[in-house]
Amino acid sequence: MSSTAHPEDHHPIPASTTADVGVLYIVATPIGNLEDITLRALRILGSVDVIAAEDTRHTRQLLTHHGLSRPLVSYHDHNEMGQAPRLLSMLQAGKSIALVTDAGTPGIADPAYYLLQAVIPHAIPIVPIPGPTAAMAALTVSGLPMERFVFEGFLPVKSGRRRQRLAALVEETRTVVLYESPHRLLRLLQELVEHLGPERRLVVARELTKRFEEVARGTTATLLALFQTRTVRGELTLVIGGSQS
Ligand code: SAM
Fold first, then answer.
1. Are residues 71 and 110 in the same domain?
2. Could you give phi then psi for residue 42, rounded to 5 degrees?
3. How close is the Cα of 22 to the center of ligand 1, in Å?
């Protein structure tokens, strides 16, 4: 297998496959540790015409850390409807664009979908630059079965839809990966005990790749008891064993 299998790899400045249009790169960036970025991601980030970033200040820090500097424009949940047509015009004018978010892989509980929907009908080449995602990092250290798994992202905040999603997990036989914010963790752990029972296997992965990285393994009940004794801080990914695991 060739290590330079992608057409873009042969050009220092990314070449488009369709005459005169640019390439949209979907670039994964670190979920904490700034070293978790691929050589290819750095090369693309250093050579595109524009980087579309969820938070331009945050991305500038990443670029500076790696000695890079490119023009940044903002693209996030609250401006995507206005920005997607602008980014599409740039691509149609032959500019290459890298889409990044604050952490991990764009589109995974992060903005990207709207832009892709806007760009795909115009036959713009879209190239993935894969890398970290918290869901995969947590899953791979969880010790729970990995052959089949479901990514649930964030559960809905509103109680009716949240209960529905939790109810659907009762019979789920696959391992489930969830994102949650620290101030809602205790509520979620209580809900998991209530819906899935106290014995369901559970892993809480906190601050992965960062200084206070922690992987707490146990059951719904033991991890509720653990986190009730302390103030929960940092970024959290939960991995829940399937109903027969
Ligand atoms: N696109 C990102 C990805 O690929 O993982 C996810 C973005 S989502 C807005 C942010 C959530 O991901 C956090 O609230 C947390 O649940 C999870 N997350 C991000 N970084 C993490 C980390 N270092 N450790 C554990 N979970 C993390």
1. yes
2. -65, -40
3. 29
pLDDT tens-digit profile, the chain (245 residues): 445 566 666 444 444 455 689 999 999 999 999 999 999 999 999 999 999 999 999 999 999 999 999 999 999 999 999 999 999 999 999 999 999 999 999 999 999 999 999 999 999 999 999 999 999 999 999 999 999 999 999 999 999 999 999 999 999 999 999 999 999 999 999 999 999 999 999 999 999 999 999 999 999 999 999 999 999 999 999 999 999 87
Q: Compute the distance from residue 181 Cα to the ligand 1 centre, in Å.
A: 9
Closest ligand 1 atom, CA of 205? 25
Distance 137 CA to ligand 1 centre (A): 10
Same domain, 144 and 235: yes
Angle at CA of residue 138, ends 157 and 233, nearest 5°: 55
**Of 85, 105, 129, which one is at a domain's C-terminal end?**
129
Tell me if 142 CB under 6 Å of ligand 1. Answer: no
Task: Output the DSSP codes for 39-83.
Answer: HHHHHHHHHSSEEEESSHHHHHHHHHHTT----EEE--TTTHHHH
- The verdict on 143 and 75 lying in the same domain is no
How large is the angle between the packed helices 185-196 and 159-169, nearest 10 degrees?
50
Residue 34 lies in a domain: yes
Query: Using CA positions, which residue lies closest to atom 13 of ligand 1?
Result: 235
